[in-house]
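Sequence only, no structure available. Ideas?
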Amino acid sequence: MEYRFEIPGTLPTLNEYVNRERTNRFSAASLKRKTQDYIRAFILDAPKFPGQVTVWFDWIRPDMRSDKDNVAFAKKFVLDALQEAGVITKDSWKLCTPYDRKFAVNKSNPRTVVLITDEDF
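Reply:
I predicted one. Tokens follow.
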């Protein structure tokens, strides 16, 4: 089984999260919660994956200002949102393998594309 969805816009980077954490840990927690709530709005029709999954990420950004590792940090928010919504069982070592598949630039349509599959790669 496969499920693909898109998250419009950009998700917070590692630097943005760390800056919030340094300013006020409650601000960082609020950023995480709001981001996960935003992500969950795009997975309302998602099927449930009861076992092992592979999650592929395509990061399409408006520019190249952020390092790829800073951008890919947002997978933490996505995986936690998927787990909270019951789409995946856990984002643990044994049950979830995330991969960054592509980084690209599109000024007019930045987004994150997520593909979940239960097939073994």
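The chain has a mean pLDDT of 96.
Hope that gets you unstuck.
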